[in-house]
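Many introductory courses stop at the sequence. We go one step further.
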Amino acid sequence: MEQLGNSICDYFVICQGNSPAQVSAITDSIEDMVRVDCKRKPYAIDGLRNAQWVAMDYGDVLVHIFLPDVRTFYDIEHLWADAKITNIPDLD
């Protein structure tokens, strides 16, 4: 893994849901799976009230769950142009 200087975390996970209910469900699923599989709780979760952009802070990993139009508007994937981007196909 290539190290990026002064980064706030080691990994950014960015995904999206198609409705606020789906964004909330994805958030709950991530929280449950990380708690069971990794024995970790998030330091903070923000954005659940509107569920348009939820951020989950695990310290070394930041998870962002967006509605599609909010993800397009903020385009945070390109804030770190020197970071390696790995696209993972939909998990149906």
